[in-house]
Amino acid sequence: MREVLGGAKAIVPSSKKVGGPGTRLDVPITHINASYVRSHFDSMEVGVPDGPRGNEMAVVLVMTTGARIHNRAGGLRAADIKGEDGLR
Amino acid sequence: MNASIRRISVIVEETHAEIGVKLDKPVRKAAAVAVIANPFAGRYVEDLTVLVDLGAELGDLLGRKCLTALGVSPTAVESYGKAALVGEDGELEHAAALLHPSLGKPLRDTIGGGAALIPSSKKRGGPGRPFDIPLGHKDAAFVRSHFDGMEVSVSDAPKPDEIVVAIAMAVGGRPLPRIGGLTVSGIEGKDGLR
Q: Which residues of B touch A28 (CB under 8 A)?
């Protein structure tokens, strides 16, 4: 996933659960280079109406090109990323 | 307490076996979920300080509820996470204001600290909508056995002018972890990652 993006420093946030067809899954989202960028703490809900069946798994990757709409919760800004440790 | 709370739900899950294999030690997870009024429902308000302050109160309150439900000493908690579900007349940013600026410190204080970031999720939806609370190890985000999640829902919330705020804690990682990576015994505990 990082190679597709040409490199990325931050941990890829994740979630997992067991469920039947149509179960909805919330995929957490954070900035690709600094986990603490507050404007980019977000998520996306996805689901597949007829999956996963009993012998299937649903695997999801999410990417975005922006922050939350009208973000104004302060904290580390994307413009201020140091890019050394994947956190800040 | 300034938060206008309508309901608090506490859920404990105790997993004893997975795919027919009994676990050496049950994995225990607790989620504490508060249904609060959204003071900014239906209108754009620039300054969200009110919600930031409510987040601090909820970090402490819901953290203690989780700990009480698990019935363990604070330092026995291994992983944590947070999430919010905003009613339809609210903004995603309202969830952000509750979760990010001020909720973390009082939450960490309830368990004697945590060096790792608290994984989070947020979305908007109506009453009864399930939402997932991501879980990660409290001292080292890269501990692979503890990447997990917990689904919660409140059948009659959130109403359009409410927000559901949830904190989860776990004692133990996934059942039967075996995909390698950083283990609990290998935690250095310096940077919150490893």
A: 119-121, 134
pLDDT in tens, B55-108: 999 999 999 999 999 999 999 999 999 999 999 999 999 999 999 999 999 999
Task: Tell me phi and psi for residue A12, to 5 degrees.
Answer: -90, 115
Q: Which value, to the nearest 10 degrees, does the dihedral of the CA atoms of residues B135, B139, B142, B143 take?
A: -80
The Cα–Cα gap between B102 and A32 comes to: 23
**Hey, are the CB atoms on B193 and A85 less than 8 Å from each other?**
yes
Residue A13, min C-alpha distance to chain B (Å)? 7
Q: Is the Cβ of B144 closer than 8 Å to some Cβ of chain A?
A: no
- Flag if A85 and B191 touch (Cβ within 8 Å): yes
A19 HSE (CA, 13 A, CB side): 23
Q: How confident is the model at residue A76 (pLDDT cuts 50, 70, 90)?
A: very high
Q: Which chain A residue lies closest to B130 (C-alpha atoms)?
A: A24
DSSP characters over B103-164: SHHHHHHHTT---S---EEEEE--TT--EEEEEEESS-TTBGGG-EEEEE-BTTB--TTEEE
Alpha carbon separation from A24 to A16, A49, B81, B92 (Å, rounded) = 11, 9, 18, 18
CA neighbor of A82 nearest in space, from A35, A42, A41, A39: A35
Residue B43 Cα distances to B39, B92, B185, angstroms: 9, 13, 49
